[in-house]
Amino acid sequence: MIINTYVKWRIEDFRQYYLATGGGNALTAEALLERKVTDVLRSEIGSRDIKQVVSGPRDATNVLPSSINSEEVTTEAAKQALEIDGERDQIMTNVLKDTRESAMKDLGVQVVDFRIKKINLPDEISESIYRRMRAERESVLVSSVLKVERKLKLFVHKLNLKSQLCWQRLTKLRV
């Protein structure tokens, strides 16, 4: 996973900051803080499924269909996706809390905010996912076309039966 984040911080204990960064070097502080954030973030992400990491909590009243068995939900993957409640906000909260404590003690800085801006998958994985999505959609399309064909054949068959009955009645009336 490729995760873009940002950290907002400020110096709180200048003495500790000066000692930890080798003379108050901001680049050193950023590198040390980045390492701390990355370690905590990896720990948080490693304990969750990818689906929980990528998605945030959702407002079920506006997004979800009335039920998982609704006509709007067409594939098994879609049903599974609707059952997962994302934990992105919880991850950000945990990283902020853990990093805040560690950064103050070790670096003398207060972490004011932490956000996950963007989560991407590597190109190979994205392509694989898109291929699977296309295959699922094609499967749904084929299934729908087959249903329509069956209904059409049944309709044509019933229509043929009715026309034969009408023809038989007409021929009886002529005789």
Task: Produce a short descriptive summary.
The protein is α+β, with helices and mostly antiparallel strands and 175 residues long. The chain has helices at residues 14-20, 26-46, 50-54, 60-63, 76-82, 88-107, 123-174, and strands at residues 2-11, 109-120.
Task: Describe what this molecule looks like in 3D.
The protein has 175 residues and is α+β, with helices and mostly antiparallel strands. Helices cover 66% and strands 13% of the residues. It contains seven helices and two strands. It has a two-stranded antiparallel ribbon with strand order 1-2. α2 runs antiparallel to α6. The longest helix has 52 residues, at 123-174. The model has no long low-confidence stretch (mean pLDDT 83).
Average residue-wise pLDDT: 83
In DSSP terms (H or I, runs of 4 or more residues), the helix count works out at 7
Gross morphology is: rod-shaped
Portion in beta strands: 5-15%
Decide which structural class fits the backbone.
alpha+beta
What is the CA-atom radius of gyration, in angstroms?
30 Å
List the helices and strands and how they pair.
Blueprint: E1 2-11, H1 14-20, H2 26-46, H3 50-54, H4 60-63, H5 76-82, H6 88-107, E2 109-120, H7 123-174
Antiparallel strand pairs: 1-2
Helix pairs in contact: 2-6
